[in-house]
Amino acid sequence: MHDTNLLKNLYTLLNEGKLDRPKFFQMLARVVVQEVGCSRGSFWFYDGALQDKIICESLYDASDNQWSNGMVLSEDDYAPYFETMRDMRMIVAGDARQHAATSCFNEGYFEPLNIYSLLDVGIEMDGSQIGIVCCEQTVEIKEWTQTDVQYLKQVVAMVSLALKKLG
């Protein structure tokens, strides 16, 4: 079972003004990796009215204990993924290199980064999808559990509250 107390603690720190937005998402990405047991965790937000690009707010990679941000993924390059996220608001891809919605990432993203599995859940605010929380597994395939999915849905709910707080 995943520990939701870490989420509550982060939200409290944000609410008390002890964390700014970048630090909040850095710490949250690391918590997601720890709790889900994956290699990489990240938060992406749609850019523009068409929602045809996502920009990485924060990505934590456990293999080197490093954060990064600013990467941009475009619907022009990854249309099946964007369409599925728009329609389903979630992708559970244990074997992401073979999954219909995510195999489009093979050459330009999965293979260079050694990613095999992907679990993405859409972040919504006021009924509109505004972003994505993403878990990735490198080196080997990871079969995501229903508990993993439910945990990410709790993360998404907290992110929505946090974004309202941040304005």
Verbal overview:
The structure is a single chain. With 167 residues, this protein is of the alpha+beta class. Helices cover 40% and strands 29% of the residues. It contains five helices and seven strands, in the order H-H-E-E-E-E-H-E-H-E-E-H. Strands 1, 2, 3, 4, 5, 6 and 7 form a seven-stranded antiparallel beta sheet that branches. Helix 1 runs antiparallel to helix 2 (21-36) and helix 1 packs parallel to helix 5. The chain starts with a helix and ends with a helix. The mean pLDDT is 95.
**Head-to-tail CA distance between termini:** 32 Å
Shape: globular
Biggest pleated-sheet summary: 7 strands, antiparallel
By DSSP (H or I, 4+ residues per run), the number of helices equals 5
Mean pLDDT: 95
Order of helices and strands: HHEEEEHEHEEH
Strand content: 25-35%
Helix content: 25-40%
Structural class per helix/strand content?
A: alpha+beta
Radius of gyration over alpha carbons?
15 Å
Give the number of DSSP strands: 7
Low-confidence stretches: none
Topology:
Layout: H1 5-15, H2 21-36, E1 40-47, E2 53-61, E3 66-68, E4 72-74, H3 79-88, E5 90-93, H4 106-113, E6 115-125, E7 128-138, H5 146-166
Antiparallel strand pairs: 1-2, 1-7, 2-3, 2-4, 5-6, 6-7
